[in-house]
Design a protein that fits this description.
Elements (H helix, E strand, L loop, with lengths): L4 H5 L3 E11 L8 E6 L5 E6 L7 H4 L3 E5 L5 E3 L2 E3 L2 E2 L1 E4 L2 E4 L14
Antiparallel strand pairs: 1-2, 1-4, 2-3, 4-7, 5-6, 8-9
Protein backbone atom coordinates (compact mmCIF):
# COMPACT_ATOMS: atom_id res chain seq x y z
CA UNK A 1 0.00 0.00 0.00
CA UNK A 2 1.34 3.42 -0.95
CA UNK A 3 0.79 6.53 1.15
CA UNK A 4 1.06 10.19 0.24
CA UNK A 5 4.42 11.74 1.05
CA UNK A 6 2.51 14.27 3.14
CA UNK A 7 1.55 11.43 5.53
CA UNK A 8 5.18 10.38 5.90
CA UNK A 9 6.17 13.98 6.65
CA UNK A 10 3.89 13.89 9.70
CA UNK A 11 6.03 11.19 11.35
CA UNK A 12 8.58 12.80 13.69
CA UNK A 13 11.65 10.54 13.81
CA UNK A 14 14.45 11.63 16.15
CA UNK A 15 17.73 10.40 17.58
CA UNK A 16 18.06 9.98 21.34
CA UNK A 17 20.48 8.49 23.84
CA UNK A 18 19.42 5.76 26.26
CA UNK A 19 19.99 7.01 29.82
CA UNK A 20 18.40 4.27 31.91
CA UNK A 21 17.20 0.68 31.51
CA UNK A 22 15.06 -1.44 33.78
CA UNK A 23 13.65 -4.93 33.39
CA UNK A 24 9.97 -4.82 32.51
CA UNK A 25 8.77 -7.80 34.54
CA UNK A 26 5.07 -6.94 34.13
CA UNK A 27 5.23 -7.11 30.32
CA UNK A 28 3.78 -10.15 28.56
CA UNK A 29 6.96 -10.57 26.46
CA UNK A 30 10.50 -10.06 27.74
CA UNK A 31 11.14 -6.31 27.54
CA UNK A 32 13.07 -3.37 28.95
CA UNK A 33 11.78 -0.03 30.18
CA UNK A 34 13.95 2.68 28.63
CA UNK A 35 14.50 6.36 29.45
CA UNK A 36 15.75 8.14 26.34
CA UNK A 37 17.14 11.70 26.14
CA UNK A 38 15.89 13.57 23.07
CA UNK A 39 17.65 16.84 23.90
CA UNK A 40 15.24 19.77 23.44
CA UNK A 41 12.26 17.36 23.41
CA UNK A 42 13.17 16.07 26.89
CA UNK A 43 13.43 12.55 28.26
CA UNK A 44 10.82 10.05 27.06
CA UNK A 45 9.97 6.54 28.22
CA UNK A 46 9.70 3.54 25.93
CA UNK A 47 9.14 -0.18 26.22
CA UNK A 48 11.30 -2.34 23.95
CA UNK A 49 11.37 -6.08 23.31
CA UNK A 50 15.12 -6.18 22.74
CA UNK A 51 16.28 -8.46 25.57
CA UNK A 52 17.43 -11.30 23.27
CA UNK A 53 20.14 -9.26 21.53
CA UNK A 54 21.02 -6.51 24.02
CA UNK A 55 21.93 -6.46 27.69
CA UNK A 56 21.40 -3.50 29.97
CA UNK A 57 25.08 -2.63 30.21
CA UNK A 58 25.62 -2.23 26.45
CA UNK A 59 22.44 -0.14 25.99
CA UNK A 60 23.37 2.70 28.36
CA UNK A 61 24.69 5.56 26.22
CA UNK A 62 23.58 3.98 22.93
CA UNK A 63 21.90 6.32 20.47
CA UNK A 64 18.69 5.03 18.93
CA UNK A 65 16.22 6.18 16.29
CA UNK A 66 12.62 6.63 17.51
CA UNK A 67 9.24 7.97 16.49
CA UNK A 68 8.34 10.63 19.05
CA UNK A 69 4.90 11.86 17.96
CA UNK A 70 2.67 8.79 18.20
CA UNK A 71 1.29 9.81 21.58
CA UNK A 72 1.61 7.64 24.66
CA UNK A 73 0.48 4.05 25.10
CA UNK A 74 -0.01 2.13 28.34
CA UNK A 75 1.72 -1.24 28.35
CA UNK A 76 1.15 -3.29 31.51
CA UNK A 77 0.68 -0.04 33.46
CA UNK A 78 3.81 1.60 31.99
CA UNK A 79 3.45 4.79 29.92
CA UNK A 80 5.45 4.37 26.70
CA UNK A 81 5.92 7.76 25.01
CA UNK A 82 7.96 6.92 21.91
CA UNK A 83 8.56 3.99 19.57
CA UNK A 84 12.16 2.81 19.27
CA UNK A 85 12.78 1.60 15.73
CA UNK A 86 14.47 -1.66 14.83
CA UNK A 87 14.64 -4.21 12.06
CA UNK A 88 13.27 -7.68 12.78
CA UNK A 89 15.50 -10.61 11.91
CA UNK A 90 13.72 -13.86 12.78
CA UNK A 91 12.59 -13.28 16.37
CA UNK A 92 15.39 -10.81 17.05
CA UNK A 93 15.16 -7.00 16.90
CA UNK A 94 18.20 -5.05 15.73
CA UNK A 95 18.05 -1.40 16.80
CA UNK A 96 18.44 1.37 14.22
CA UNK A 97 21.17 3.77 15.24
CA UNK A 98 23.15 6.60 13.64
CA UNK A 99 26.54 5.74 12.19
CA UNK A 100 28.18 8.56 14.17
CA UNK A 101 27.24 10.27 17.42
CA UNK A 102 24.95 13.25 16.77
CA UNK A 103 23.06 15.68 19.02
CA UNK A 104 20.08 14.26 20.89
CA UNK A 105 16.82 15.33 19.31
CA UNK A 106 18.28 15.49 15.81
CA UNK A 107 15.52 14.88 13.27
CA UNK A 108 15.79 11.96 10.86
CA UNK A 109 14.75 12.94 7.34
Amino acid sequence: MNIDYSHFEQIDIRVGTILEINDFKEARNASYKLKIDFGPLGVLNSSAQITKRYNEKELIGKQVVSVVNLGSKRIAGFKSECLVLGAVSGKDVILLEPESKIPNGQQVL
